[in-house]
Design a protein that fits this description.
This protein is α/β, with parallel strands linked by helices. It has 15 helices and 16 strands. The strands form 3 sheets. An 8-stranded mixed beta sheet has the order 3-4-2-1-7-8-9-10, with helices on both faces. Strands 13-12-11-14-15-16 form a 6-stranded parallel beta sheet, with helices on both faces.
Length: about 375
């Protein structure tokens, strides 16, 4: 089977949540005998084909970028060429330019859209984009939501009035990585242990300003790993509040991240907007058997983290409530450990890359078995 995956970017150019999912999916499918190609854009104007173990990556140079949406005039002809090769085309949504690519050609292949997120931030542009979006989503063979929570709360998915599949995003199931003893000792010397941990790109919707405010109400150390556009403002907020127990460690390697997870008491993920549609960092925390604290925003964050079972959930942008949740886990280590074990069990059941790939392969196979006009 030959599958063409379509998204605006691909590893290693960037590695956000959707890119991580796409990498894990292609790796999982390749392990089950699927031949993958990834069609993406690049800010390097020179076209390039990169051969990777999991997929051939076909990149077209972006002509311009509008509202975080890269566009390429050359992509139309290259997309048609790649479509001729494919049995199935699989889009990651949202990327409005992919809607145009799909609708620009009469050449049809079995088509799947993974609906990763509503368009949240560009509400004004959404009014203009909505007719194209609805036409695109109505024209593909299958639409997949990543959690029942998002399926039930998305007005766009509700408006489609068609069956929607649910397939959870997943990560490689190679067990919780055993941290390198040297790196673990390094971080223990720097930070101690039993701190609250966050790792991810420091974006506007991650709610980290609330985590910093919550730190005023708890004596426990908070370690924030990662980089991003909000880092400078967050560091300023910490400095002005005199919060010496909030520590930024910047971007970290996988080895350092495993060491930090192993030393932490729990994972805190205070995202407060629906732009946080799933939370791959939560899946990673679950793989490390860590209890989680999330905000209840009606998305997949409280699907990965089941409140009361794998962790706790609080209202968004409520720093006192967040601090109380942190204190509750710290005060009851046996309960926190139980939640961590439950998180790991739930990861093994629902959130592995193998499970994700197997579900999509079954979906592709079902589509190809159906007669096509």
């Amino acid at each position: 089977m030959k599958v063409l995956h379509v998204y605006k970017t691909y590893y290693p150019d960037t590695l956000g949540g959707i890119e991580q999912v796409l990498l894990q999916l292609t790796q999982g499918l390749a392990g089950q005998g699927v031949e993958n190609r990834v069609f993406a854009l690049s800010h390097d104007p020179r076209p390039a084909v990169i051969e990777r173990p999991e997929a051939r990556v076909v990149r077209c140079g972006a002509t311009l970028e509008l509202a975080s949406t890269p566009v390429s005039w050359r992509a139309f002809s290259e997309f048609r060429a790649q479509l001729r090769w494919a049995d199935v085309v699989h889009y990651q949504f949202p990327w409005p330019f992919a809607d145009l690519l799909h609708l620009s050609t009469r050449l049809r292949r079995a088509s799947v859209v993974t609906y990763q997120s509503d368009v949240v931030r560009q509400k004004g542009l959404l009014t203009l984009y909505r007719p194209l979006m609805q036409h695109f989503l109505g024209s593909v063979d299958r639409v997949v939501a990543t959690s029942p929570n998002y399926l039930s709360s998305s007005p766009v998915l509700a408006s489609l009035q068609r069956p929607i599949d649910v397939i959870a995003n997943g990560l490689s199931n190679d067990g919780a990585p055993h941290p390198d003893p040297v790196r673990r000792q390094h971080w223990r010397d720097q930070l101690g242990a039993d701190f609250f941990f966050f790792v991810g790109v420091l974006r506007y919707y991650k709610g980290l300003h609330t985590l910093v405010q919550a730190a005023r109400h708890t004596r426990h150390k908070v370690v924030i790993a990662g980089d991003g556009p909000e880092r400078r403002a967050l560091e300023k907020q910490v400095a002005e509040s005199g919060l010496g127990h909030v520590v930024f460690v910047g971007a970290v390697s996988d080895e350092d991240k495993a060491a930090l997870f192993s030393l932490s008491l729990a994972f805190v993920f205070p995202s407060h907007l629906r732009s946080e549609a799933f939370g791959m960092s939560l899946v990673e925390a679950a793989s490390h058997a860590k209890p989680m604290i999330t905000c209840d925003i009606g998305t997949g964050t409280t699907f990965v983290n089941l409140p009361g079972q794998t962790g706790l959930a609080v209202p968004p942008e409520q720093p006192v409530a967040l601090a109380h949740a942190m204190e509750a886990l710290a005060a009851h280590p046996a309960e926190a450990a139980r939640m961590g074990r439950a998180a790991r069990a739930r990861f093994e059941q629902l959130f592995t890359a193998d499970a994700m790939a197997t579900s999509y392969l079954a979906l592709y196979t079902s589509l190809l078995s159906q007669p096509r006009g």
